[in-house]
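name: query_chain
kind: protein
chains: 1
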Amino acid sequence: MQPEVHAFFDEATNTASYVVRDPNGSACAIVDSVLDFDYASGRTDTRSADEVIAFVKDKGWSVDWLLETHVHADHLSAAPYLQDALGGKIGIGSAITTVQEQFGKVFNEGTAFQRDGSQFDQLFKEGDSFHIGQLRGDVLHTPGHTPACMTYVIGDAAFVGDTLFMPDFGTARCDFPGGSAGDLYDSIQKILALPDETRIFVCHDYKAPGRDEFAWETSVAAEKAGNVHIGGGVTREAFVALREGRDATLGMPKLIIPSLQVNMRAGNMPEPDDSGKVFLKVPVDGL
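structure:
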């Protein structure tokens, strides 16, 4: 079955979010939503999420799921805000507990911060399935970029998060805590084992050199044939060497510090202090 997919691209964070609808009904899911955040002022804004809300309401659709492919390091999730407006369950991979344990230490969260994934409504593992109306989705655990990365295969569409980018841009970095280039290679093989005609929807695009337009939809066949990091039968050894060498040259995403603290809480801010103010921590020399 071919789901109806609508993309919303946030150029400030280069993030593609998706509304995925059961073509035989009004049920839909939202994948990898964005809460706008200005780091310099510490201010949030909901314009990106409001665009999605207006779209879904205008169509008269109902939201079954708010899916996160992983704990994003480059944008804040708007899942709780969308849930308040539209309903739906917030889902992520079960290895979120590993990520929470790692970054709970980085941000010195203490015992008040639960590291059991309880902030989310559903923790998916390899082989799980779910439904958007009558449309079935299947779950692949695709770690490498982070331990908790998931690919959601919904009909003929695969939502791969940061695991793969457009063929001319390559693959995800693996140098965050818990990342592994070897694991990423193995995960990508799972995705490339899907039927060639499977549509792949990526979470980010940065316009590779020579391309003037943002893009976010490709296919298994196109990735196998032409991905600049993994296409054409690149060996695991060669990929690991390429990926680790490239990662050594990369700086940190500009929103990594606020993003991790919010996204490991399912898009919620840390608890306010006694005065009602919310604060985010900056770990000096911690990343």
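note: The chain has a mean pLDDT of 96.
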